[in-house]
Amino acid sequence: MADARKIIKKIGGSKRGSTRRSSSTRRGSSSTRRDNRVMPRWKYITIATLITIGTLTLAYPIIRQTLNRFTNCSGENIFGICVPEGYSVYGVDISHHQGNINWGKLKSGEQSGPAISFAYIKATEGCSHTDTQFTNNWKAAKKHGFMRGAYHYFSTQTQGEKQARKFISLVKLEPGDLPPMIDVEEKPKDTVKYRKELKKFIETIEKHYGVKPIIYTYKKFHDKYIENHFDDYPLWIARYDVSDPGINKEWIIWQFSEDGRLPGIKEKVDINVFNGTLEELEKLRIK
User: Between the ranges 105-109, 112-116, 148-152, 229-233, where is the mean pLDDT highest?
Assistant: First the structure.
């Protein structure tokens, strides 16, 4: 029996020892798992750095544009933007994107700031689209004493003459209105064909109204697609955040910002300057 007790005691001791080792091992494994779940500090720093870089990259164009408007501004800060020096005749170009305009409020804004002398209003696009706000804007602009003009957005998808007929069917110019404007900025696949169709549009418009239409575009488009091809027509150039449109051709209107803020217009609006005096602008009006 003594030997049996010794054997039992030995076995029991072995079990207890084994149990303690197992428990210790389990605690060690749990601790290891907890340690594995904790992200190393360097990973946190790396992720935070990447997020910061990504955010700044996305925000940089907006920040740069905002700073340029004011730090590079040699003129006055009006209309919520920096206006270039040396010009005194301002105008807007609008479409349905500006929503319902309070033309009376826009006119009364002259009492607290520079006058808006002219307004170009989108009429048509391509050969089938009519701007939803054209009729209201066209009538209201005249009622409130603005020099008004109508414009067409030229499409590369349809024939130039058909587009011209669409514009003519809608826009009835009267004495005192400004010449029609053609917005050309849609890049063509076939440059030769594009110029041919644009010429047809221009010639049809000119013949009907008896006045040369104004061509609106931005500098890079002008230089690549229409330079030296339509030089007989007045040029309206779009170029932002610069002190000069920087184009080697005489121009009559410069759209220098698309972020203007004006009373009566809830949305941002394009702001333009006329390259001359108010009297010279008056001379462009249809007789």
Answer: 148-152
